Automatic annotation (TrEMBL):
It is found in: Membrane. The chain crosses the membrane at residues 59-80, 92-109, 129-146, 155-174, 186-208, 220-239, 251-275, 287-303, 309-327. Pfam families: Nuc_sug_transp. One of its GO terms (molecular function) is pyrimidine nucleotide-sugar transmembrane transporter activity. It is a multi-pass membrane protein. It comes from the Eukaryota. Belongs to the nucleotide-sugar transporter family. CMP-Sialate:CMP antiporter (TC 2.A.7.12) subfamily. Keywords: Membrane, Transmembrane, Transmembrane helix. This is CMP-sialic acid transporter 5. The lineage of its organism: Eukaryota, Viridiplantae, Streptophyta, Embryophyta, Tracheophyta. InterPro entries: EmrE-like, Nuc_sug_transpt. Coiled coil: none annotated. SUPFAM superfamilies: Multidrug resistance efflux transporter EmrE.
Length: 339
């Protein structure tokens, strides 16, 4: 906790007024940012179908994740302009990297571990519904860290979005049974881990937004730093994990084909887009993207698999559209001080 407080001191003092940029919720989102949002929504929605078709079951998960992190680093370095790359190299410091990217990367790593524990001990419906609380925690930490307030209408838009996410989760969980575990196991190894993971997700997203908007840390540089930290954590885990044993036994590229590269590259592109969206649109709008992507997945499943969307999906569609419209149309407005 002491580390977090020390890192966030600049945004809780008078220096905030000098460093703070106008929050995305008070500005009209530019066409370029809308382009990032749409691309990320399509990528999120299409990724499950692409992965299912292109990655064989024999492929070791850790190998594909590590390859994706390497691809993100290569893409981010390629997208950096040569002049900016040299400037960043001269100004880069280890402390700055750990402050801006190391802490969020570590938080995301812990969050993913908690989600894995929770997913094994909860039915998919309960897991998906509780996982949507990260939207509220993102809005809370955005206010706490960046002092970005939400208007009453925007809060209403968030409520509509969470309701849509719950409906989509119900549709996804229809027909799936519960885990059948006892109540203590469900509480301590299911409900509590996913709620803690939601809190961590909101905190990490807000920290990334703070680093990008207040500290002016390049989103591409953050992608490189977080990918390196994440890869090091993943490599360390292979010494004891089953995936590590499989890699040592069968080799890193076991089960790979030429098609395996497709979802890895699309996922890497998604990682770049996440950084851009967080930097320019904020972590709350990223939450809108995640829920909207569920509708894209349902549409693509209907087109390519002939699986029609559930009635819950049809109910959720107008809620998502309404929530996005309300959130964008009614930003929080600062009250003018009377002279």
């Amino acid at each position: 906790m002491a580390v977090i407080k020390r890192n966030l001191e600049p945004v809780t003092s008078s220096e905030l007024k000098r460093n703070e940029v106008p929050p995305p919720t008070t500005d009209k989102v530019s066409g370029k940012v809308w382009f990032y949002l749409v691309l990320l929504t399509i990528q999120y929605g299409a990724q499950p179908l692409i992965s299912k078709r292109c990655i064989k079951r024999e492929v070791i998960v850790t190998s594909s994740v590590l390859a994706c992190e390497v691809a993100k680093v290569v893409c981010a370095l390629f997208l950096m302009k040569e002049g900016n790359l040299k400037k960043m190299y001269k100004e880069w410091t280890l402390i700055g990297a750990l402050t801006a990217s190391g802490l969020p990367a570590a938080i995301y790593a812990l969050q993913n571990s908690l989600l894995q524990i929770s997913y094994k001990n909860l039915d998919s419906l309960t897991f998906s519904m509780l996982n949507q609380t990260k939207l509220l925690f993102t809005a809370f930490f955005t206010y706490l860290i960046l002092r970005q307030k939400q208007s009453v209408q925007q809060i209403g838009g968030l409520v509509l979005l969470i309701l849509a996410a719950v409906l989509l989760s119900v549709g996804e969980g229809t027909g799936k049974g519960s885990s059948g575990s006892d109540s203590d196991l469900i509480l301590f190894h299911g409900i509590i881990p996913v709620l803690v993971a939601s809190v961590l997700s909101g905190l990490a997203s807000s920290l990334c937004q703070w680093a990008s908007q207040v500290k002016k840390h390049s989103s591409y540089l953050m992608t490189v730093e977080m990918s390196v930290v994440g890869s090091l954590c993943l490599l360390a885990s292979t010494y004891q994990s089953p995936d590590g044993e499989q890699i040592r036994k069968h080799g890193f590229f076991y089960g790979w084909t030429a098609f395996t590269l497709i979802p890895i590259l699309t996922n890497a592109a998604g990682g770049i887009l996440v950084g851009l969206v967080t930097a320019h649109a904020g972590g709350v709008r990223k939450g809108f993207v995640i829920v909207s992507a569920l509708l894209v997945t349902a549409l693509l499943q209907f087109i390519f698999d002939g699986r029609p969307p559930s009635i819950y999906c049809l109910w959720a569609l107008p809620l998502v559209i309404s929530s996005i419209s309300i959130y964008q149309k009614y930003p929080y407005k600062l009250k003018k001080k009377s002279s």
